[in-house]
Specification:
Elements (H helix, E strand, L loop, with lengths): L4 E3 L1 E6 L6 E4 L6 E4 L37 E5 L3 E8 L13 E3 L4 E3 L4 E6 L13 H18 L7 E8 L11 E7 L4 H17 L3 H12 L3 E4 L3 E4 L10 E5 L11 H21 L5 E6 L14 E6 L6 H6 L2 E3 L3 H10 L3
Parallel strand pairs: 4-17
Antiparallel strand pairs: 1-2, 3-4, 5-6, 6-9, 7-8, 9-11, 10-11, 10-15, 12-13, 13-14, 14-16, 15-16
């Protein structure tokens, strides 16, 4: 057996696997290659050169005139707001008009109708969501839920995509902590694949795949990360990225926006702990997180279960991934989970 290899931060070491493995995701049946042979010493410490752009930051309290008028504010006495949702200055989709579709028998399309908003996560110039308290994260999650609830009244809209790009390498263009809401006129393929996979499972065994999945992970234990009364977090067996996490409620629920008050508070703490583990354990890596929840028009779904995916962006996505749809994960999720469980926060 070869020696352990440092990965990304000098103090995290990966034990080489005997053989590379192709692993299948149980939901969408996407294959991932887990191979420690891919470890290279090029994944070195990324010292985050924190350039403060405080004075010109459009997201800081006092600079509200630099953004479009808010569509939602979670109030706060000191700054007037604690979480602020504003229309994106450079939207990918537009709020007006109808989602007409067209086809010339060869090319088909739909007008880009939808909502594209920025969620400013805090009034002060804080770059890391992990540094905010749990009750603040609960307010952020509450803002997500309220915007989804609002979108359910608009029959033109089909799917609320909520995501966060943290760090330039994960696609963020401004450092002040923020996330995005993109509400689309159709259900995206990635989500439809999850819905279809979950439905197939439900039809065949009569239970929710995700409910079975988290229980299975809890019994196995080796990929488990966090566990509270109502929530659990684990590293998926076929995770695409090193340290990829899945956070979900233990009680079956298809719609994120129907979270109760006490659930929001607990999820705020779970999300904070997960992000703190990444921040402390991996020196504040760039990451994305994204929410997968039921389509807007759907009633309660017995087969689908909302969840948050946290995707650290330590390894790049390159030609092989684009060409094949296979991701290559150089860190076995069992080892990543073991390491993160031991990270003190
Ligand atoms: Zn700022
Ligand atoms: Zn479920």
């Amino acid at each position: 057996m070869e020696d352990e290899v440092p990965f990304y931060v000098p103090w995290f070491r990966v034990r080489p696997m005997a053989d590379p493995e192709l692993r299948k995701d149980p939901v969408v049946e996407r294959w991932v290659i887990v191979s420690t042979d891919r470890l290279s010493r090029t994944h070195e410490l990324h010292a985050a050169a924190a350039v403060s752009r405080l004075e010109s930051c459009p997201f800081c309290a006092g600079h509200e005139h630099l953004t479009l008028p808010a569509t939602l504010e979670i109030p706060n006495e000191r700054d007037g707001w604690r979480v602020r949702v504003v229309p994106n200055m450079f939207p990918a989709v537009r709020g007006d008009g109808e989602p007409q579709t067209w086809s010339d028998g060869w090319h088909e399309g739909t007008r880009g109708v939808g909502v594209h908003e920025v969620v400013i996560e805090c009034p002060q110039h804080e770059t890391s969501l992990a540094n905010l308290p749990a009750d603040h994260l609960a307010d952020l999650l509450r803002a997500y839920g309220q915007r989804i609830q609002q979108a359910r009244h608009d029959p033109r809209l089909a799917y609320p995509m909520i995501f966060k790009n943290s760090g330039a390498d994960a696609g963020a263009s401004l450092e002040h902590a923020h996330s995005q809401i993109l509400i689309l006129p159709q259900v995206p393929r990635t989500v439809q694949e999850e819905l279809d996979g979950a439905k197939r499972y439900h039809e065949s065994v009569g239970r929710c795949l995700f409910c079975d999945w988290w229980r299975q992970e809890q019994v196995a234990g080796e990929r488990q990360l966090l566990d509270t009364t109502r929530f659990t977090a684990f590293l998926p067996y076929a995770g695409r990225f090193p340290f990829e996490m899945c956070i979900l409620p233990k009680a079956h629920a298809s719609h994120f926006e129907e979270l109760a008050e006490e659930e929001l508070a607990e999820l705020g703490e779970v999300l904070r702990l997960a992000l703190r583990k990444l921040q402390s354990g991996l020196n504040d890596p760039p990451y994305n997180y994204l929410l997968h929840t039921a389509p807007l028009a759907a009633g309660p779904l017995p087969h689908y279960h909302w969840h948050l995916e946290v995707l650290p962006r330590i390894t790049g996505v390159a030609g092989f991934e684009w060409g094949t749809g296979y991701f290559v994960n150089p860190v076995p999720p069992e080892q990543a989970a073991e390491y993160l469980r031991g990270v003190a926060i």
